[in-house]
Amino acid sequence: MIPAAFEYYRPQDMAGVLAILEEHGDDARVMAGGHSLIPMMKLRMAEVPHLIDLQDVGGLSDITVEASRIVIGAMVTQADIIDSAELTAAAPILREAALQIADPQVRYMGTVGGNVANGDPGNDMPGLMQCLDATFTLVGSDGERDVPARDFYEAAYMTARDDEEVLTAVSIPLPSGGYAYEKQKRKIGDYATAAASVQITQSGGTCTSAAIAMTNLSDTPIFSEAAGAALVGTALDDAAIKSSVAAMLNDIDPTEDNRGPIAFKKHVAGVILRRAIERAWSRA
Amino acid sequence: MSNKMHIKLNVNGKEEEFLAEPRELLIYTLRERLNITGPHIGCETSHCGACTVTIDGKSVKSCTMFAAQADGKSITTIEGLGGPDNLHPLQEAFKEHHGLQCGYCTPGMITRATKLLEENPNPTEEEIRFGMAGNICRCTGYQNIVKSIQAAAVEMNASKEAAE
Amino acid sequence: MKDEVDTREDRVANLKGMGCSRKRVEDARFTQGKGNYVDDIKLDGMLFGDFVRSPYAHARIKSIDTAAALEVPGVLAVLTAADLEPLGLHWMPTLAGDKQMVLADGKVLFQGQEVAFVVAEDRYAAADGIELVEVEYEELPVIVNPFEALKSDVVLREDLMGEGGSLPDGAHGPRKHHNHIFTWDAGDKEPTEEVIANADVVATESMYYHRTHPCPLETCGCVASMDKVNGKLTLWGTFQAPHAIRTVVSLISGIEEHNIRVVSPDIGGGFGNKVGAYPGYVCSVVASIVTGKPVKWIEDRMDNLMTTAFARDYHMTGKISATKEGKITGLHCHVTADHGGFDACADPTKFPAGFMNICTGSYDIPTAYLEVDGVYTNKAPGGVSYRCSFRVTEAVYFIERMIEVLAIKLDMDAAELRRINFIKKEQFPYQAALGWEYDSGDYHTAWDKALKTVDYDGLRAEQAQRVEDFKAGKTRKLMGIGLSFFTEIVGAGPVKNCDILGLGMFDSCEIRIHPTGSAIARLGTISQGQGHATTFAQILASEIGLPADSITIEEGDTDTAPYGLGTYGSRSTPVAGAATAMAGRKIRAKAQMIAAYLLEVHDNDVEFDVDRFVVKGAPEKFKTMKEIAFAAYNQAIPGIEPGLEAVSYYDPPNMTYPFGAYVCVMDIDVDTGVPEIRRFYALDDCGTRINPMIIEGQVHGGLTEALAVALGQEIAYDDMGNCKTGTLMDFFLPTAWEVPNYETDYTVTPSPHHPIGAKGVGESPHVGGVPCFSNAVQDAFRPFGNTHTNMPHDHWRIWKTANELGLHG
Ligand SMILES: Cc1cc2nc3c(=O)[nH]c(=O)nc-3n(C[C@H](O)[C@H](O)[C@H](O)COP(=O)(O)OP(=O)(O)OC[C@H]3O[C@@H](n4cnc5c(N)ncnc54)[C@H](O)[C@@H]3O)c2cc1C
Ligand code: FES
Ligand code: FES
């Protein structure tokens, strides 16, 4: 498993990155942790004549918790997320989700930016970021722009990011209330059979807001607005959860693979979501 | 073929400099260029952990990193942990508690375990199983690997206390 | 003298002989990263070879263009079948009496098949060269199902057709159809059918034991080095049977056997994957001859999973009959065996379905019949014994499922049904209906111990309560109790009925005692993690009274080791272990004469005692083995040649029959299909126990591989013959997280015909473990009407069972 030959660049700043992207267009790609990209290159499923390593570009590895939002640099790794007490205090769902990604070695290398930019429906962070209503900051030669996570994903490996843009940070409005990241997989190191992110607030036993997103159940992550809406204003009784699950099932479109056929995936998606809602509610 | 790059690594405390194609994977640099054959290749797709080394304090699967990415970094392999006269407590413990059979996973396993114990000097069985889940062993069923790591933890904590 | 103050116990302990948990001598190098595996070998000027492989499962090859590949800097040669044909090496014999293409000769029969071999200065150039070899294929209809193969007009193996479309016999007799390989049977057909037709109760079941793969952590590979100056070929490789490889290489290449040296260095696990001969070995040898340089070939993981050595793929149909009280009267088994594109099973020649005829299991079944049909399909060849003796996992799975199915039919407890049908202790040696003579066993004792330890009755009560709770809506988890009682058949085997390609399946040991009382012993086997260097030294220590720490064990180099058939099918301890003991006894016999001479008494007046010979009745008069060794070399003893050496080639009189009783307790989430192993108890009886620590380690490992196979590990194909499970993402190898802690236990029933009573253990836990895990899953659903569902019990298939039983409301 040897990748095709390529040129390697390790620019020291974003201007350097953008210049190479501009020069080589489609033939150039940035690499963060490389733990999605390198396996694809080794299998020769991705050909990257010009590979731009982002590791030396400054300012991409910070975690900042502000009064109303959290900003996570694109090069922050899953391990960094797990280790950050400040982040865990502010948005514990991030740690809960990160711990369910891959294995320890991969988590040291895999980055938030790579995970959300990759566009693989199996990645866990995109759904999570949709649930948290995060915004992705993209920078290109024309400057910076922000795209909501909920508008970012178009199809498998197709996102709103232009080829010449780099994702620099993820901003998350400070979440409140109860949370849960629930994932079923065949073993450690596997992508989700089905996963659900849920963030819920309540007041006096009535649900005041609910955000729900599902992973690996369509060719993009699925933010199910209807599933969340079904919970708001209820006391999270069985009927409310049932209608939330039904709404979610309407929104997903899983395909058959080695993890199982469509009927199974839908059923598990429902079970996983119910459990996530119940756990989030118990923490709300 | 692309241009060769000038790469500098510190491997097990020794400075190494060489020219290599950017696509050279670190595992091959170690095994074929530097004759450091402790880290093994079990899958090449970052699932098995046989190729695990420590790079600047992180456990890394060296089959999924280009040597170019490691340029300027410090790498520790099983060979750097201890030798015949100064075995690492984990090396001792794996021998003592039958933590290996064919030995193929062992270098990666022990290298990963050093890092696990550094981060968590008193792991529970569950924490060990979770923390070692990036390393596959086909022979032992893991039970004695867990036992070996627990024993090494006790030993390392005792000698740390004695030193204090 | 120190010896005089040591107690007898001290002297025994000092030997570190049989029965003690001696630490492994191999571990020093492995824990320091100093193992020497084949991919660690680096020779001057060494080249790398790798394959162009077929993307199609069945296609004709219209053309192969290697020109562009040869342009790649560093690519030296591209071999195709046309290059090998003049040497007669484009096909090679398989271990099963069939032949297999080394490189595609006009067509390909499975996805991943070897089409061309690119030889280059480094692995990068080889990889680039592969990309540029242009092969034009014409797709042919693909058959991945053996039942369809037997109906299809499509001829998979045109090379096996006779004149005018006739069907010549295959290696194992007449063939019924052009995609049929053999029919093999055992037992009495009509009487069995009659018993079943007239029985009180008959249970019938069809089951598929899915295709899987041994997948050792190290893949297969080799380094071939032809020294043209001396005419010597050296071949290092991952060989579980180095001597057999030497013989095969000699037969197919024409190089005389003394000019071939085959070396198995350290092997990173085998589990059956490394028994066979693969195209990579042949191509490396040819490439080395052509280029005059050493050539290395190492599979990557996808190559490994997709092309070398699958296991199982047995479609089994059973009928079992019994009296109303549950006494089994007859068993009928038919197997349709999917062998893929070539029949490359690694079985003894006379047993094309291995020892499937051990499928009467641990039970006294008076009448039985087994029939196996082998079939070609467009899948990879193989059919190896993945951590088991030849097809014994299939046999044990079959009978342990049939027992459960019968218990359901009889509405009986499955533990009790087993108990009333076990072969009784006093019936051994027991002649089974399908031909084998079981050497020894005490099944009832083992079973009772197992059930008592796990509190079987308590578990059943808990399970009944759980069913109540489930029905009342208080829980969504069911509880399964998996039982299995297995009898293995290992130690192939007696040369009178066991050979592979005509090579008798004896094994060997050669011992040389050094003058100062240390020793080296060489064997025809090869360890792949079993710890031979440790345990064989223990056997010898006990036999010859020298400390195990003073004995070096060497295996795997055909220039130095005596001929043997290698390590697989748990044969090392039963066969080579016996050879070791017998060679040790020859040493001891000579030592006795020397001792008698030195002590100035008659030979018969001295006796062996731990580490010395003592004068009978006068234990203060003795000579230690160390002293005797020195004298053997350095003292002129009338009538005795100098030196102390011995060789033994051991042809076992019978197989050995280890057995065991396993219980698994599992909770199953009905809604997600996720199983959770709560408890696993394994009692093994492997006869005399040489090293309890190593036995326990083997049990943990074998059970974990059993867990994998039962709960998810498979080689699956789509209808086009594409392999869907080519990486470790989809091919299930559990991590530490998915694996439970096991409880181990034992009884000891020595083998009466083995010199030290040992039976072998490496594969028992796999053989017994698979049905135990599977039975646990199936048992959880028994109260709801389940009789049988096929493995692997991954989440979705468990879910499907629950769904079909209406448990999802
Ligand atoms: C064995 C294994 C198991 C895994 N299991 C999971 C899992 O369960 N869940 C999960 O979510 N992930 C899983 N992963 C993927 C892992 O988390 C990846 O590391 C992650 O998805 C990508 O992060 P990276 O930093 O490695 O990205 P890279 O591999 O470097 O890049 C991935 C893609 O994103 C692009 N990219 C990277 N950074 C940027 C950026 N800043 N701006 C624009 N584009 C960028 C790259 O060009 C590339 O196309 C697994 C990986 C492995 C090897
Ligand atoms: S070889 Fe690197 S993870 Fe398997
Ligand atoms: S000891 Fe063989 S793979 Fe772990």
UniProtKB/TrEMBL annotation, chain A:
EC number: 1.2.99.2
InterPro entries hit by this protein: CO_DH_flav_C, CO_DH_flav_C_dom_sf, Diverse_Substr_Oxidored, FAD-bd_PCMH, FAD-bd_PCMH-like_sf, FAD-bd_PCMH_sub1, FAD-bd_PCMH_sub2, Mopterin_DH_FAD-bd
GO molecular function: FAD binding; oxidoreductase activity
PROSITE patterns in the cross-refs: FAD_PCMH
Pfam families named among the record's database cross-references: CO_deh_flav_C, FAD_binding_5
UniProt KW Secreted keyword: no
Domain of life: Bacteria
Keyword annotations: FAD, Flavoprotein, Oxidoreductase
Keyword Oxidoreductase appears in the UniProt entry: yes
FAD-binding PCMH-type domain segment(s): 1-177
PANTHER family, alphabetized: XANTHINE DEHYDROGENASE SUBUNIT C-RELATED
Protein name: Carbon monoxide dehydrogenase medium chain
The organism of origin for this protein: Shimia thalassica
UniProtKB/TrEMBL annotation, chain B:
Start and end residues of each 2Fe-2S ferredoxin-type domain: 5-81
InterPro entries, alphabetized: 2Fe-2S-bd, 2Fe-2S-bd_dom_sf, 2Fe-2S_ferredoxin-like_sf, 2Fe-2S_ferredoxin-type, Beta-grasp_dom_sf, Diverse_Oxidoreductases
Pfam families in alphabetical order: Fer2, Fer2_2
EC supergroup of this enzyme: oxidoreductase
SUPFAM superfamilies: 2Fe-2S ferredoxin-like, CO dehydrogenase ISP C-domain like
Domain of life of the organism encoding this protein: Bacteria
Keywords, in A-Z order: 2Fe-2S, Iron, Iron-sulfur, Metal-binding, Oxidoreductase
Single GO molecular function: 2 iron, 2 sulfur cluster binding
EC numbers on record: 1.2.99.2
PROSITE patterns assigned to the protein according to its UniProt record, in alphabetical order: 2FE2S_FER_2
Name recorded for this polypeptide: Carbon monoxide dehydrogenase small chain
Protein's organism: Shimia thalassica
Annotated gene: coxS_2
TrEMBL record, chain C:
Domain called Aldehyde oxidase/xanthine dehydrogenase a/b hammerhead: residue spans: 32-141
This enzyme's EC code(s): 1.2.5.3
Assigned keywords, A-Z: Copper, Metal-binding, Molybdenum, Oxidoreductase
Listed GO MF terms: anaerobic carbon-monoxide dehydrogenase activity; carbon-monoxide oxygenase activity; copper ion binding; iron ion binding; molybdenum ion binding
Stored InterPro entries: Ald_Oxase/Xan_DH_a/b, Ald_Oxase/Xan_DH_a/b_sf, Ald_Oxase/xanthine_DH-like, AldOxase/xan_DH_MoCoBD1, AldOxase/xan_DH_MoCoBD2, AldOxase/xan_DH_Mopterin-bd_sf, CO_Mo_DH_lsu
Any Pfam family: Ald_Xan_dh_C
SUPFAM superfamilies found in the cross-reference section: CO dehydrogenase molybdoprotein N-domain-like, Molybdenum cofactor-binding domain
Protein's UniProt keywords contain Metal-binding: yes
Entry cofactors: Cu(+); Mo-molybdopterin cytosine dinucleotide
Domain of life: Bacteria
Enzyme class: oxidoreductase
Reaction equation(s) it catalyzes: CO + a quinone + H2O = a quinol + CO2
Function in brief: Catalyzes the oxidation of carbon monoxide to carbon dioxide.
Subunit (UniProt): Dimer of heterotrimers. Each heterotrimer consists of a large, a medium and a small subunit.
Protein name per the record: Carbon monoxide dehydrogenase large chain
Lineage, highest ranks first: Bacteria, Pseudomonadati, Pseudomonadota, Alphaproteobacteria, Rhodobacterales
